[in-house]
Amino acid sequence: MLLANPLLRSVEVQRNGLVVFLSVRRVEEAASRGEILCIDCARFFRGARGLRWHRMTMHEESYEDAREAGERQLVVYQEPPHGGGPHTMPDYAESGGGGEGGETVGSDVTPVELVEKRGQSAAKEGNLELLKQLIDEGLEPARAADRFGCTCLLWAAGGGHIHICAYLIDHCGVPWSQRQHKDGRTALHWAARNGHVAACAFFKSRGADLDDGTFNGTTAFHWAASKSQREVCAWLIHEGADVSRLNKYGCNAIQWVAQSGDLGMCRWLMEKGVDVGLVNRNNHSCLHKAAIKNRMEVCRWLLEEVKLTPHIHMAADSDGQRPSTMAQAQGFYDLARYLRSFEDS
């Protein structure tokens, strides 16, 4: 939470409940040393690369999302045209941005906010009677959202509660195409991610495009595959979804699964025609994705069974990092040695 205070820069609530106060002086001193603030945990890191590695390992972001977050965060340290301290943080930092804790530290929850929170919980749990009661008390389900932009419809879809979804759409005027403001996920994306085939079919019947992407182009197939929702993936394929669709970083679904480490899902996706040898726009292959999360079993499969080509699929990425150096940097020394044995062959 940013503050209009001459001494304090921000107040952040961490996952463990610890409240961190950052002074203006601390932020300016860090900026002078080239350190960048992680807005989700209020820690500083040396340069964009340091912040990127932190967000990948501690916040479990993809390489591409972590890189983009680091580039956006550099705005904080640009000098304004007429001198003075760092710029105000971007809007996404104030709107939730993925951190833990409340948006209004130290403030009381208003009656309207309380009704909205109860409404989201009712939708999440599939409690239609409570949801109707809260609507009678003033809940506006088409508008009410948590700090990440999740509405009652998105919570209901994520829980697979079709009766709630139908009520919100048919009786409350909530558009079935509603998106989460943080990353553009729709109800279909949440249903697919959480393994609810019937809910996916419901949204398709209402007009949802199975290949529709989030703001970064991630589709329902990406989400389902990354969470090993094989039944949803099979349904999407049967219904004509494009299994080869790439997000804006050039990643396909099997790259996401290589990073999550589900070897069985990797094999299944390859059988379904997903290109295991793809190299994305950052020059990442499945080996890069697996290496950064210490997925030894996946790396062995890629090199010994699939037989990816080392000079292509183990080449340096746009930051000069090979799969082996990624593993080494994270302390995965056995994996790093294994990968180097192929680089040197």
UniProtKB/TrEMBL annotation:
One Pfam family named in its UniProt record? Ank_2
Question: Domain of life here?
Answer: Eukaryota
Record keywords: ANK repeat, Repeat
Instruction: Give the SUPFAM superfamilies listed for this entry.
Output: Ankyrin repeat
Which InterPro entries does the entry mention?
Ankyrin_rpt, Ankyrin_rpt-contain_sf, Znf_C2H2_type
Q: What is this protein called?
A: C2H2-type domain-containing protein
The ANK repeats are at 183-211, 216-248
Segments carrying the region annotation (Disordered) are 80-104
Q: What is the source species?
A: Octactis speculum
Q: Which residues belong to any copy of the C2H2-type domain?
A: 38-59
Q: Where is the composition biased (Gly residues)?
A: 95-104
